[in-house]
């Protein structure tokens, strides 16, 4: 990929009308719902903007959530205190514009989301995602997420695992 990107919070300056990821639901959410969710503090939303092209090339949303301790993989849960629920960040939505897919931008957005969760001034044990299909699941597994036991498309990645990898 020749273009480089900056990742910044979604604002009224970003023109979302032409964004196409191949998922109508994710495109519609981005155009019609994301700003409302931000305003109501339901989610935050960050976008990748091409530094030279100015293209709006991808976005993701982040929301606070919790995961039941007994829903985590047993080898992860056994290292944690016996609280019924552990805090997590949910990557609610993630999409890359069709012409930028398979060039690593999804990975850049994922890394940005994980870094924001790691820096947040509240306890966040893991990032959780609901992969919308098999392809999305492959993508998350490529970057180290593991499926929660008994769940078809729910995956998680402990923030401490990410930090160990990055240091
Ligand atoms: C899923 C999505 C965000 C991935 O973004 P991306 O920028 O294309 O992903 P990357 O280039 O970082 O992919 C890294 C690796 O993930 C895996 N991967 C990515 N897309 C994949 C796909 N469609 N099928 C299988 N594996 C895939 C591959 O291993 C890929 O490495 P490779 O290209 O060297 O084979 C993007 O394809 C997208 O927006 N799709 C439509 C919306 C969507 O499905 N969002 C997920 C919501 S849960």
Would you write up a description of this structure?
This protein has a single domain (5-166), classed as 3-Layer(aba) Sandwich (Aminopeptidase). The chain has 167 residues and is an alpha+beta fold. Helix content is 31%, strand content 29%. Bound molecules: coenzyme A. Coenzyme A binds at residues 21-23, 26, 94-96, 101-107, 131-132, 135-136, 138-139, 142.
Note the main attributes of this structure.
167 residues, alpha+beta, Aminopeptidase, seven-stranded mixed sheet, 5 helices, globular, binds coenzyme A
Low-confidence stretches: none
Query: Which sheet architecture does the biggest sheet show?
Result: 7 strands, mixed
Kindly report the CATH topology: Aminopeptidase
Overall CATH class: Alpha Beta
Compute the gyration radius: what is it?
16 Å
Number of distinct helices: 5
Topology (elements, then pairings):
Blueprint: E1 5-9, H1 24-39, E2 44-50, E3 56-68, H2 74-77, E4 85-96, H3 105-119, E5 126-130, H4 134-142, E6 146-147, E7 154-158, H5 159-166
Parallel strand pairs: 4-5
Antiparallel strand pairs: 1-2, 2-3, 3-4, 5-7, 6-7
Bound molecules: coenzyme A (COA).
């Amino acid at each position: 990929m020749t273009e480089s990107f900056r990742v910044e919070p979604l604002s009224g300056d970003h023109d979302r009308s032409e964004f196409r990821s191949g998922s109508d639901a994710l495109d519609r959410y981005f155009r019609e719902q994301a700003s409302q969710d931000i305003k109501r503090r339901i989610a935050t939303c960050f976008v990748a903007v091409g530094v030279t092209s100015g293209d709006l090339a991808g976005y993701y949303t982040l929301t606070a959530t919790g995961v039941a301790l007994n829903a985590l993989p047993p080898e992860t849960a056994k290292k944690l205190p016996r609280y019924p629920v552990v805090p997590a960040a949910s990557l609610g939505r993630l999409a890359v514009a069709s012409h930028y897919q398979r060039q690593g931008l999804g990975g850049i957005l994922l890394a940005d989301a994980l870094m924001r969760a790691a820096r947040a001034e509240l306890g966040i044990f893991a990032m959780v995602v609901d992969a919308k299909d098999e392809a999305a699941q492959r993508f998350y597994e490529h970057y180290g997420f593991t499926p929660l036991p008994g769940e078809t498309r729910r995956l998680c990645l402990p923030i401490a695992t990410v930090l160990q990898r990055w240091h």
